[in-house]
Every structure is written in structure tokens, then in C-alpha cells.
Specification:
Strand order of the largest sheet of chain A: 2-3-1-4-5
Distance between the termini of chain A: 42 Å
Oligomer: homodimer
Shape of chain A: elongated
Structural class of chain A: alpha/beta
Order of helices and strands of chain A: HEHEHHEHHEHHHEHHEHEHHEHHEHHHEH
Radius of gyration of chain A: 26 Å
Number of strands of chain A: 10
């Protein structure tokens, strides 16, 4: 895309100035429309070193209300960032509805740089690009506008600018060794950029290449693209047309809940205690190994109310070193969470490599409570199965072990436990009117859960149905499932 | 405190076991009371290397519900952390009401280590300890329970444990060079610990020294202290007794708002444009210098509705490099913010060194809207003046420039602007029913603002009243005030 791109066209300065002025007014008015229509905008600005990304951003925002935008700069990633999935840094920074985030270079720059440094091998690059396409597509499908600009300059122009920056002692610190490297190997770098641009230019998030030889021309083009894109997005109805998916994931077949026999028990308390102790001991050792091998572990707990999720999690968590494990209780989203992509609040809670995150309820709320209570549109929850598979696929590619438990009981057992909670003062806080209301919708929930298990039990992140009529059985089963998953993984890694 | 502490007492194992069991049940029941009474608990566990902090934490939480607690481990600070104030790492991690955060070593360890490495000079240590005392006192006054345990072992015991850890290949990575250093210079380290303990043991957050020679004994003592402290805190009524303050801050005298003349104007639009342009240019240069000198700048904007805050901020922000500046619009707190110390949501938004944070409304909401709308108790807002001074003092000691603007108009000007907003379609979103309601309370607000200006205009973080009947005048004044503050600071630093 870059190779054939003509650079250095002449422009008419005064007419550019006045055009910019009118676009600026337009953008200023669009801010309020964004707010009103709750449209979030991501503006990614990439380009060559010294192509003027920073100063372009400065001009774009000059007349924006600072309450409506944020600028994110790509800086040297911290140790913590390096221990998170690649997209974590970007996903956690997406705007709320009605706001704009400008990325002063981002996932493109980081990717191309990793290719350059040979950190990313060929297969990894393919995966990376795939993840990026999914990231952008998910954003668009969830109502985000994604605008991507690439500032292009020639080798000679870049050299001239780097030299000028170096001559001024106020700006010399901005020129890095990397910039000069880029200039020296300009042609190679151009090929890398091109390959990236081609791989990620899609109709719903196309690349716009800007001739940045002349700053005014680049500014004018940027204003035009941004305002036009916003106009189009304001007209578009979000989620109206599902976008093409890239991949089908291999599924594990799951039984219908009604076919699951709940009569599994542990023979005696003594047997339970002995087995619990030895499983916890084994898990403690394995946590140590995960830590040393820097493998992250993500465990999802879903299940019926009163199925025994809490007690089950407790047995698992207490076997882990608390310095490297965290339980995330997931309640109804707060408004700052609701105003972003629904997976945002889970991305922000991902563990570091070597750590364990246990989700006490999870993103699967989308296809259960949010679906049944009408908290999202039908298109939203229907799309979510694949989105969640993609999300977990990304986590697994990053290196995580992902395990999902459905803690299962039957309606009679639930009724017994509800009544017991009601009658026991220390347990009464655990039972609310909502629990009774949910109980009435058991058949609808069962249908939704069956659909969820069927559609999201992938081979890389399968569901495990944990029979929990006997809670002791359920605890041992969950512990042993986790132990087995870790052992299998460690064995596979050593092959 | 440590020197005279007797170590190595014999205990009766079976009776310790049964006592621990009953404390454990008590703690388990207390969780629900914490939740019910919305009491947040901070449990700081410090001590010698290999004294068993981690395993003690493991035992304390074994029967706690993972939804109620988090464990924070002190790890090597990231670059980002190093560019924040010392207490940032801890303040941002305080629990929500009803929850427990266990710190696996924290601000004590970090401080003593900085003394050891000679990073902290004598005067800096004094300031550091002062900041820590304020931190803990503010937490307690705002309803937190702060429990501090120190695990003490002898030099010989430590040596024995380090050797044992090193012998096992599963644990050898836990022993650091630092641990052996500590053991080698045990006596010196003991003195440093002692000094810290003495300086920070206060009745509302006392230190508890535990003999950790015998793990069971330490566990028993920890359980006893934790459960007893929680019992006492549950009985205590928060904020009922103000705690002794350490310091009075030098104030700048402020005029009453009614004495401020609002007839200041800029002669012509042309003069405004010229001056604006040159001030923005100067500020841009200065931002560069702040960045290079790593000086953080914090600017607070408060003012009457329709006083022109937004436009004023825009002129300031657009002169800054957006990669190093952020505007934080402060709205009513969301529930995850309300359930923490009211300064938490500002601590989490502090800039890095060399960066600028502009607060569009701020912590001063406490003594204005929260006071007048009864959103906090009288004791809360009365205490807040000093707390906010302490907060800003800490920021200044860290190295920040703190500037606070009161954007001022009179009631007639406000009425005119409200009417104009009402009558201009593009501006109508800016005016709400609440604005009209607030307007009716002008006299009460004026009284509150006068009190705020009088009590919180410290010499290190003064208020500036910005006359904004002529918005152009106000913009230039704010810009020039910021410029002057930066220039003064840079000059002082160079002396």
C-alpha cells in the first residue's frame, strides 16, 4: 500500500487553512453528537518516526473539549504490562461511550517493532495479526468507531526531520536510536509496514494513508477523514450488520443438563478430608510450578444460585499462594463499566503471567442474566458466544490455561438450600428476593445454560459440569480438574 | 521496641491449636459483620525476611470467603510506580467498605529498605515518617481499621530458615541476596526497624510485635490481635473522636469573594489573541522543561457554574503536549468510589513525574457540594480542610507544583449565561435543572467557598481567584499564573 503511494504533492496553503478551519468547527460540533448518541471513538495514529504524529494530535484536539478525549502514548511497556496479553494495554484503554481516545501510535507500531527485533516469529505474527483483526472487529460490532491513520514520509524527508530535531536541544531527546535505525533500513521497514497495513485493512476499520510531507496537507486530510468517519458512524445503527468471522473453533460436545446424573457423592467425611488435603497439597505444588514457568491460570465459576460456588472457590483458593492468586467476584456492572465494551471489565482483571485469577461469575453473564433480563439486545447476546470464544482463544494463545466450571444442582436441592439459608441467621445474607425470582425462571435459564455449554465449550477452554448435590464431591472434582489441567499442560510443554 | 522483646517462649501445642480453631471461627463470623457495618480493614504484615509473613497470611485467610479479602504483595516497583508519590502504591489499594486487604509487607519494608540503601536521607526520612503517620491517621478517621503486625525472629533463627529454604529447590528462589544482607547486618537492621516502629506506633494504629520463632505461637497471637481489633472497631463509632493533628500549615490570606472586583477586562480581541498566543507558546516550552526535570504539575479548577471553567481549561490544555497531560473531569462518585476514602479517586488519578493533571472539579467537592447537600457528615467535611491540606502537602513534598483556581463571577453574570445557554441549541446540554437549583443556594455556596479559600490556601498550594466576568481576562490570568508558578519553581530549583 505504501510503495505505490505518491508523496510530496503541492497544496494551496490558504485554501487548506480555510478548509481546516471549517473541519475544525465541524469536529467541535460532532463532539456533542458523540455524547448524545453515546458513540465511542478510537483514533489510532501510526506512522514513521518524525512523521509528525504528536503534532497532528495536538492540532486535532486543539478545539476539542478536554472532557471528551484522552491521548494515550505508547511508552516503554512496564514489567507488569509485559506480563499481560499483548492487547491488554490497548483493550484496557478503550473509551467510554461518547468519548474519544487518541492513540499516539499503538498496536501497529508495537507489532512491527517486534517483527523488526525478531521477537515475533512468522507463526506468532500470523496469530498476532489475527488477534488484532478480532480486536478491531469486536470493537466495531460493539458500537465503537475505529479510525486508523498512517503518516507516510519518504526516506529523505525523515532524514531531514531527524537532523532538524537533533539540532535543537529542546527536541534532541525525541530522536531515538530506533528512529535512525528505521531511516537506515527504510526499505525493509516499508515492507514491514506494508505487510501490516495489508493484513489489517478491513472495510469496517480501513487504513488511511496520509502524505505527511507537508504538515498542512496531512492535517487537512486527517480532519477530513475523522469528521467524515464520525458522520458515517453516527448514521450507522450499531450491530445492525454482523461482520464476517474469521474462524470456527473446535467444540467439545456437552451433555444436556437434564441428562447429568447428580447422584455422585463422596463415601464418607473422612474420605473427603483425606482427599481434600492431598488435592490441596498437590495444587499448592503446582501453583509454584506455574509461577516459575510463568503460566497464567484463569478459572471461571458459573452455576445455579446456592449450588455451592462460594465454598468450592474457597477450597480452591485456600490451596493457592495468595500472593499469586486473586478471586474476582463479579457483580452487576457499574456505570463506568456499562459504558464500555462488555469484556472491558474482564480484560482489566486478567492475571499476570504465573498468577491465577478465579472469576466468581464472569463474562458468561452476557448469555445468561443479561440475555434473560433483557439487559442487552438479542444481537448482542447472540454475537457473544463467538466473541467469548475469541476472547478465551486469545488468552490461550497468550499462554493461559482456561478452565470453566458449571456448578450444577437440581431445583429441589436449590429449594432445600434456600430454605436452610432463610432459616439460619448467619446465612441469611446469602439469600435475596432476586434469588427467589431467578428460581422461577429455572426453565429459561436451563435453556440458556445448555446453549452456552454447547456453543462455548471449546477444546482450548472447555466447560466442566460439576455435580454439586454433594458439595464435597463437587469440591474434589473442581480441585482435581484444575490439577489435571495443569499437569497436562506442564507435560505438553515439556514435550 | 524489638531489642527488649523476649523471643523463643515455649508454648503448649494442643491448647494453641484449639485456641486458633476458635479464633478462626470467630474471624469467619466477623466477615459478615464487617460487610454489614461496612467496616474496611487494612492488615499490614511486616517482619524479618523468612519470618513467615506469607505462610501466616495463608493461614489467616484459609477460612475467609475470597469475596471479602485481597492480598497485596510488595514486588519490585514498576517504572510507573517509581514516578508516583511513595504512598500512591498503597493508597490506591485500600479496601472498599466491608472488605479486608492484607499487605504482605508494605510501607514499612519499603521505607526501611530505602534507609538501608541510603536512598532516604535523614530529612527525607522524617518527612516520610510524617507522611505515613498522616496516611494511617486519615484512614482511621475515615472509618478504616488499621492493624499492624511485625514478625520478629532472632538472627540465629533467621539464618537457620534461610538455609533451609535454600536447600529445597522448590523454595530456593525465595531467598534473595537482600535476605542474607539482612542477616549479616542483623543488629543494624534491628535498629532501623526499631526506629520505624517507635516513630509510627500510635494508639489508633499501634504496632503488635509477634514472636515468630514458633509458627503456631505467631499464628495464635495474630488471630487474637486481628479478632480483638475487629471487635473493638465494630463497636467504635467512626469519626466520633477527632485524632490529634501533627501540623498546622502556613496559610495565605484570601479576600472574601464579595470583595473581589470583577471589572477586569482585556482591552480588545486583538490584544487577547496576541497575549493568548504568546502565553500558550511559553507554556508549551515550560511543559517541555517540566518533562525533562520530571516535575509533576497538578492544577485544580473549581468555580461557579457557567463561570467559564471549560473554556479556560481548554486554552490551558491545548498548550500542553497531550502525551504528558490529562484533564480529569470529576463527576459525582460512582459506588466503587463512594465505598472508599474520599481521596482515593484522586490518588488514583495522580500524574506521573513530569506530567500534568488538570482536575475539572476536585476533592474540594467535599467542602462544597457534599457539605451543602448533606452527602457527608458534618464531622467529615470539617475534618476535610486539614486532610486536603495534608494531601496537597504530601504532593508538594513529592515534588509537585499544585495550583488551585477559583473561577469567579457574580450572580447576574451567571444568570445571563444560563439564559444564553438555554437559548442556544448547541449549548443547551451544558445547562441542567441542577444548575438552576444550585443557583438558588448561591449564598450558602458563597459562605462555603469563602471558608474553603480561607482554610486551604496554603503557602505551598495556594488558591488563585480568577475573575471571569470577561472570560478572555480569566484565560490569560490562569495561563500566566501557571507560567509564573513553573518559572518560579524552576528558578528555585536552580538556586
Amino acid at each position: 500500500m505504501l510503495k505505490e503511494f505518491p508523496l510530496g504533492r503541492e497544496i494551496d496553503r490558504p485554501s487548506a487553512e480555510s478548509a481546516i478551519e471549517s473541519f475544525r468547527e465541524k469536529l467541535s460540533a460532532q463532539q456533542l453528537l458523540l455524547k448524545e448518541k453515546k458513540l465511542p471513538v478510537i483514533l489510532l495514529i501510526e506512522g514513521w518516526g518524525a512523521s509528525g504524529k504528536g503534532s497532528l494530535i495536538g492540532r486535532l484536539i486543539r478545539y476539542l473539549d478536554p472532557r471528551f478525549y484522552t491521548v494515550c502514548t505508547r511508552s516503554v511497556p512496564s514489567d507488569e504490562e509485559l506480563r499481560k496479553p499483548f492487547l491488554w494495554h490497548y483493550f484496557t484503554k478503550i473509551p467510554q461511550a461518547g468519548k474519544i481516545v487518541l492513540f499516539d501510535s499503538g498496536w501497529m507500531e508495537e507489532t512491527v517493532r517486534s517483527v523488526e527485533s525478531k521477537e515475533l516469529k512468522k507463526r506468532e505474527l500470523t496469530e498476532r495479526l489475527d488477534g488484532i483483526r478480532i480486536f478491531e472487529r469486536q470493537l466495531v460490532e460493539n458500537g465503537y468507531l475505529v479510525i486508523k491513520l498512517f503518516l507516510h514520509i519518504s526516506r529523505e524527508e525523515q532524514k531531514k526531520r531527524l537532523e532538524a530535531l537533533e539540532e535543537d536541544k529542546n527536541t534532541d531527546w525525541r530522536v531515538t536510536k530506533n528512529d535512525w535505525q528505521q531511516n537506515k533500513h527504510y526499505d525493509k521497514q516499508l515492507k514491514r509496514f506494508d505487510k501490516y497495513l495489508e493484513a489489517t485493512s478491513v472495510p469496517w476499520a480501513p487504513w488511511h494513508i496520509l502524505d505527511a510531507t507537508n504538515r498542512k496537507e496531512a492535517e487537512l486530510a486527517a480532519f477530513r477523514i475523522v469528521t467524515e468517519s464520525i458522520d458515517r458512524a453516527l448514521e450507522r445503527r450499531p450491530g445492525s450488520t454482523p461482520l464476517p468471522k474469521t474462524e470456527q473453533f473446535p467444540l467439545v460436545q456437552m451433555p444436556l443438563l437434564s441428562k447429568v446424573s447428580l447422584d455422585k457423592t463422596v463415601r464418607s467425611d473422612e474420605e473427603y478430608r483425606t482427599q481434600l488435603k492431598s488435592a490441596q497439597k498437590r495444587l499448592r505444588e503446582l501453583h509454584n510450578m506455574l509461577y516459575r514457568k510463568k503460566i497464567p491460570l484463569i478459572i471461571v465459576y458459573e452455576g445455579w444460585d446456592a449450588a455451592g460456588k462460594g465454598g468450592n472457590i474457597k477450597r480452591l483458593a485456600s490451596a493457592l499462594d495468595p500472593r499469586g492468586a486473586e478471586v474476582h467476584p463479579i457483580a452487576a456492572p457499574e456505570s463506568f463499566e456499562l459504558s464500555r465494551h462488555y469484556l472491558w471489565r474482564f480484560w482489566t482483571r486478567l492475571p499476570k503471567t504465573g498468577h491465577v485469577a478465579i472469576f466468581d461469575r464472569s463474562w458468561y453473564g452476557r448469555v445468561m442474566v443479561e440475555r434473560l433480563e433483557g439487559l442487552c439486545s438479542e444481537a448482542d447476546w447472540k454475537r457473544a458466544y463467538h466473541e467469548m470464544n475469541e476472547f478465551e482463544h486469545e488468552l490461550v494463545r497468550w499462554g493461559a490455561i482456561v478452565i470453566k466450571f458449571w456448578i450444577h444442582i437440581d431445583p429441589d436441592t436449590q429449594l432445600e438450600r434456600f430454605q436452610e439459608r432463610q432459616n439460619t441467621p448467619e446465612k441469611r445474607w446469602k439469600i435475596t428476593d432476586e434469588d427467589w425470582r431467578n428460581r422461577e425462571k429455572w426453565p429459561q435459564y436451563e435453556k440458556a445454560v445448555n446453549e452456552m455449554l454447547r456453543k462455548t465449550s471449546t477444546q482450548f477452554a472447555p466447560w466442566y459440569i460439576v455435580e454439586s448435590k454433594d458439595k464435597r464431591y463437587a469440591r474434589l472434582k473442581a480441585l482435581n480438574t484444575v490439577i489435571q489441567a495443569i499437569e497436562t499442560r506442564i507435560r505438553d510443554d515439556e514435550k
